[in-house]
Amino acid sequence: MRTLVLGGIRSGKSEIAEQLVSQHDSVRYVATAVQTAGLDPQFRERVTRHRDRRPAGWTTVESIDLPEVLATPAPATLVDDLGNWVSGQLDAAGGWDDESVDLQEKISALTEAVASADGDVVLVSPEVGLTVVAPTAAGRRFQDDLGSVNRAVAAVCDRVLFVVAGKVLDITGTDITGTGTDTGTDTDTSTDEKLRAADPVTPAATDDEHTVAAEEIVAEDIVTAGLTAPVPAAATAIPDVETSAAGDPVRGDLTLESAADFPDVTPPSYERIEAAKARELTLTKPAGSLGRLEDIAVWAAGCQDRASAHPFVDPVVVVFAGDHGVAANGVSAYPPEVTVQMAANIISGGAAVNVLAARAGARVRLEDLAIDADTDPSISRFKVRRSSGDLRNTDSLTEQEAAAAIAAGRAIADEQVDRGADLLIAGDLGIGNTTAAAVIIGTLTSTEPVVVVGRGTGIDDAGWMRKTAAIRDGMWRAKYHRFDPPRLLATVAGADIAAMAGFLAQAAVRRTPVILDGVVVTAAALVADRMAPGARSWWIAGHESHEPAHPIALSWLDLTPVLRLDMRLGEGTGALTALPVVQSALATLESMATFADAGVSTADGPGEIGDSDTEGTDTEGTDTGAHSDAAAAAR
Ligand SMILES: Cc1cc2ncn([C@H]3O[C@H](COP(=O)(O)O)[C@@H](O)[C@H]3O)c2cc1C
Ligand SMILES: O=C(O)c1cccnc1
């Protein structure tokens, strides 16, 4: 993945760029401000500050010959920054006051080197084009050349971020000219390019647009260029919903067996978990006093598996939409057409998922797996069918359809992880889906229909009886497949829940953490953990839904919910409500001062911090090892 991080002076661009490579233990840091001897003291201090922030394990190369540096493969390279590169080139060629000096060849060599570099490459560059045109010839020269460099490098990057006031905007957008340079070096790039082309975003919604009908989800409503907003901190604006361009649905020669054949799941890093636990003990608070925040931070640190854990940078919620044939039997308080209407509402930015995602700084993506209407290709490239079969008396999916749905969920998880998502959330949308979820949970936990049945959208007593009967019928059919998870999905889940199961299992395979949502997502999670044993170690339960089947499923997965707020909506809303708590937990682990740093006395008593054999708890001494790096990096 090649990323260009643009930003103004002190915008936070370097910190963001450092975060982007921080999952790598070894990073090649290319400093382009090489002539420190001639720099004024303040600039030298600025360079030193950048240097001090770099963790151990990073190697620094001071050079402006970027093609030469990039020709040697490295797992991760961070170039900071292209402004200094331009200055260095102008210095070398005497170009500041000689208009005939042309950097074009240098720029072409640079872009070729970036395009063909191995490993992750992150390039930082100042954006100076937003200021007034410089009053001096040298200033104008710098602005013009830097503008050309930024454009040329952006054209060969998979992702372009713009940092303003510490907030990140993803401005990758779509190449509307069709002249984008094909970097054509690896399969990741082509996936990402497909994604880029498939990244139209919707305009901000007006109140009227929130009620847009199903048939109105058409291509014209989707603007093909614009900003997505993977902001790391809480934001107030509602970010646009990402949708995707049409593509081949995942079918081909897939069998149910091959679609559900997951590689072994490896658990989050034991070493990082132990290191995070040890660091918790060094922080300026009584041991354990942040309660479950500490458990959450330790889990997340194990998942992030890097020297210093920090809040997630690019969380994404994928809403899996699909209708369920069983909804025709009065098992929901709302009519089936609400599914497609709500899909439109999500695209317009008016649903609860949009608002909560905006607050938590998460991207929103909508995927139609089985809505009972023709929807725009931008959301239906993985569509398996229109509605799933009535689970009371027919298989909800054929084997082939179930295979396609599971594979779709896997592909969606892969896509998100490949484009940089570091936390995944699945959300559900589909009238009748709590009936399917109850059937799955009842079957896999051997629980009676009357125990797992819930009020869903708010059914009355007559509806409750119809729903309980439907769950009973579904469980009767499902029980033959209790020990065959993919077949169970085909029998009763529907394409949306089957895709969710593939998504959750694949997230674990890709070592990417997940916050689970309510009863529907957790039903999919129960199946996913059976298809990919151990997947649950990558998940945390965001909340406990009002639906009675939910705590049953969570306890089978041995997961304790972060929140209990009597929510019963789905769409990923419970997980998104928990996300700020998870971020706060990580922020405390990353940024709190240690006893040693702050000069705070530790407890003397047995079992307290003073007795811990953890390094760095001594108020006289200095913190040691990775933790001090993390603490230094945090400041
Ligand atoms: C307006 C509206 C928005 C929703 N957003 C999520 N759901 C949630 O409720 C439905 C499941 O409940 P049941 O099984 O009772 O139909 C699904 O659409 C689910 O995503 C909604 C439901 C409604 C009515
Ligand atoms: O818990 C959930 O996920 C849920 C509850 C009611 C309706 N839809 C979803």
Automatic annotation (TrEMBL):
Cite the annotated pathway.
Nucleoside biosynthesis; alpha-ribazole biosynthesis; alpha-ribazole from 5,6-dimethylbenzimidazole: step 1/2
Where along the chain is composition biased (Low complexity)? 622-635
Locate the coiled-coil region(s) and give their ranges: none
Q: Which InterPro entries match?
A: CobU/CobP (IPR003203), Nict_dMeBzImd_PRibTrfase (IPR003200), Nict_dMeBzImd_PRibTrfase_bact (IPR017846), Nict_dMeBzImd_PRibTrfase_N (IPR023195), Nict_dMeBzImd_PRibTrfase_sf (IPR036087), P-loop_NTPase (IPR027417)
Q: Does the keyword Manganese apply?
A: no
Active site residues according to the UniProt entry: 571
Give its E.C. classification number.
Answer: 2.4.2.21
The UniProt GO MF terms for this protein read: adenosylcobinamide kinase activity; nicotinate-nucleotide-dimethylbenzimidazole phosphoribosyltransferase activity; nucleotide binding
Sequence ranges of Acidic residues compositional bias: 610-621
Instruction: Give the catalytic activity.
Output: 5,6-dimethylbenzimidazole + nicotinate beta-D-ribonucleotide = alpha-ribazole 5'-phosphate + nicotinate + H(+)
Q: Which Gene3D superfamilies match?
A: 1.10.1610.10, 3.40.50.10210, P-loop containing nucleotide triphosphate hydrolases
Q: What processes does the entry annotate via GO biological process terms?
A: cobalamin biosynthetic process
**By its UniProt entry, which PANTHER family does this protein fall under?**
NICOTINATE-NUCLEOTIDE--DIMETHYLBENZIMIDAZOLE PHOSPHORIBOSYLTRANSFERASE (PTHR43463)
Q: What does this protein do?
A: Catalyzes the synthesis of alpha-ribazole-5'-phosphate from nicotinate mononucleotide (NAMN) and 5,6-dimethylbenzimidazole (DMB).
So what family is this one in? Belongs to the CobT family.
Name by which UniProt lists this protein: Nicotinate-nucleotide--dimethylbenzimidazole phosphoribosyltransferase
From which organism does this entry originate?
Gordonia jinhuaensis
Its gene is cobT
